[in-house]
Amino acid sequence: MTSTPVETTDRPPQAAGSRISDQGTSRVGDKVFLGLSRGSGIAVLVIMGAIAAFLTIRAVIALADNEGNFLTTFEWNANAIPPKFGIAVLAFGTVVSSVIAMLIAVPFAVAIALFVTHYAPRGLGGPLTYVIDLLAAVPSIVYGLWGALFLVPHLTDFYVWLDEYFGWTKILSYDGTAPRSLFTVGILLAIMILPIITNVSREVFAQTPQMHKEAALALGATRWEVIRTTVLPFGRSGVISASMLGLGRALGETMAVATVLSPSALIRPQLLEAGGGTFAQNIASAFKEAGQYGRDALIASGLVLFVITLIVNGAARLIIARRKEYSGADA
Amino acid sequence: MTAVEDAVAVPAGKDPLGIQHARLPRWTPAAVAIGAIVLAVVAGAAADLGNKVQVGLIAGLLYVVGTFAVSAAVEGVRQAKDRLVTVLMWGAFLIAVIPLASLIWETVDRGKTVLDADFLTHSMNGVLTIGPGGGLYHALLGTIEQVAIATVIAVPIALLTAVYLVEYGRGRLATAVTFFVDVMTGIPSIVAGLFVLSLWIVILDLGYSGFAGSLALAILMIPVVVRSTEEMLKLVPNELREASYALGVPKWKTIVKVVLPTSVGGITTGVMLAVARITGETAPVLLLVFGSQAINTNPFDGTQASLPLYVYQQWANGNQASWDRAWAAALVLIAFVMILNLLARGIARWKAPKTGR
Amino acid sequence: MAKRIDVSGLSAYYGKFKAIEDISMTVEPRSVTAFIGPSGCGKSTFIRTLNRMHEVTTGARVEGKVRLDDEDLYGQGVDPVAVRRVVGMVFQRPNPFPTMSIYENVAAGLKLNGKVRKSELDGIVEKSLKGANLWNEVKDRLNRPGAGLSGGQQQRLCIARAIAVEPQVLLMDEPCSALDPISTLAIEDLIGELKERFTIVIVTHNMQQAARVSDRTAFFNLSAVGQPGRLIEIDETERIFSNPSVKATEDYVSGRFG
To answer: What are the ABC transmembrane type-1 domain coordinates in residue numbering (chain A) (predicted)?
Structure first.
């Protein structure tokens, strides 16, 4: 790593001979440049370490005085004396809303990615890819605004309908109040992460080697059978890692949840009805009223979110790495 | 169903190879669609379903089932499955278009009501939030300053890190940096905000400022730029580097004079996309810049406004006049991000390494 | 099971570009017909029109007739998917499905066609692998990935996969161009055995190979770059290589161009 012998060994002898004095300065240049770039790499590591360290420091301070159980307490009264707060509601809400988002978004994303790569009429695929790219760039606050002022009022009828036919499940029963609920959050998150998952899946599907598709075609496969035997197996791990990226984003999404959800310190099975909370939403909503101690408590909950997203992203990376090995053996 | 009888008949005995298959005529999908809609409307009227969406859902379901049934009867199950999947793909695409198109439509439609020159050039200073008037000038200014500072901090670090990984990186340090850059990509923006909050505001007690927000935005920007720059540098053919070494050019000059200029288009694109991304980040700005009603041109001292935060705060005011302002600001934000994206992709196409034969 | 192929007045296009023009020929059953000619002369395009793989490329289309024992492959009501089950194909680069085992690769075509009983499937897989001279090499590792085999073995696996669905015709598009000489020899031997059961068409760049394996040889040429390829002549292989009737053929086989 420290030795960079290329410039000394590869240089033609006559050039080295005629510019021996120059070699001294270029060595200094090389050292400075290597130092700078390596320093930047190290800076990245330092930043990551600092994030973990400073979050942990404040979290430890907050947890020392907590009267409640950090993991099982429902309410978030970090400003009370004595403070009592826990992440049970937040963890439940974060997981539930993200799971709903994934259940909706992943099938749609895979279908749309296949549509763009294999079904869309010629000339439509390219522009569609472009549009999906642009949609992935729409800021989350805009999704949040649309979710709160457009989606929420338009979901009431749908929820009444769900309640009529599936109300007996408890999960899908609905009391008619404004649906600022975990389920609505799940739908909005699904819409938000759809472009990202679609994009990554599309890229993987488009890379399916033509020769494998032709092999299936030559055996007399229909278009769907070609996709089933070649495109889907080839793209499976790519879709999984794309989904993990989407999941990571859904777990950490703040503004879209903060605008849509009407929070409460309750864990209830009625997902269509208002209430609950997520880590990120709680931080954004409780921040304004938080005192010094309240901020530390929020930092503690942020640390949990940080760890969860680390695990999800780590898992996605592992899957991608496995895929690389696999395709390496294949080539 | 009539489609069955109208299918192209296969003359008996003329197909010893078995390669001819009855195909549904081209108008079949339209016929099935009309049938499905009629049936759904009739069923809806009979069951007294007032809701148009319900009738639509029933029609859609009937269309899917009908297509499969007709095709299976005439063309066989394999062809029917193929048609079924095709219908589902189109369906998924069309359903997904609805919310995304609505998002853009609503933002443009509601945003344009108060968006005018006055709105762009005035702050909210002294404006009652429950009434109309005011603008987003202070927020625009704040966002531009915060994003500019974040870019100035993040881009050099990110470029050099990418250069390190591609041109020098071997061994444990490079592996660790690669890994943590990936990890960093996945950090929720609010966590980046909390980190700067704990360090800058809680521990160092330096107070809310635009600069504090910039620090968090820089953290979010670095991994994005590292990744895209890395990809671009990897595209530079090795022959180019070797040609330069063979002329006796030292490595650092090769990188600065040969490698970076070759990939400058792609790197610029990556930086612009990253700028577009952090421009829309709200959560860290909420925690660190805090927001303001008035113009504050100094990003290093005192609270500032920011465009995405302005959208949030106007929404939170909870009245129509504020919501109008929120939509208008959202429209400005989307327009800015989209233009940046389009420009970035334009540059990518224009500067793309020529891969001609 | 082998069938005669009658091609008449066949032209193929990629969008506006005409790749081959007005080709008419007969391919005899139970024999090997080789297509030779310089690069770009359209021989690969032509072979792909024989099982309607040509039209898989967007914008590609075909004019003319290809009759397989009097039934037109481009006739009304003909399903290209069904055609490809009757006319099998082996490609330039071995392309076993990377996510499937050796067994699954051979069984892939059969599984598409519907349910086959396991015992029956076992028998067909064994028969096909034996038919492709691969059985002895892989019988102990049928569940290992097909991509783990050597290049030559992979190509024979692809042949086994193609013949497992019992096609009438087997098309081979430069099947040995990605292989070493020993693997090439194994494939050439195999072609000699397969022609007892199938009508075989092979595109090859290698004139010695055409001389070794084929009964009849067709020579394709193009007048200039950008012009469509044409069939110059088709005859017994021996004649093409010793005493062709057209001057261009003689120039080509004697190595004067191409």
So the answer is: 91-316
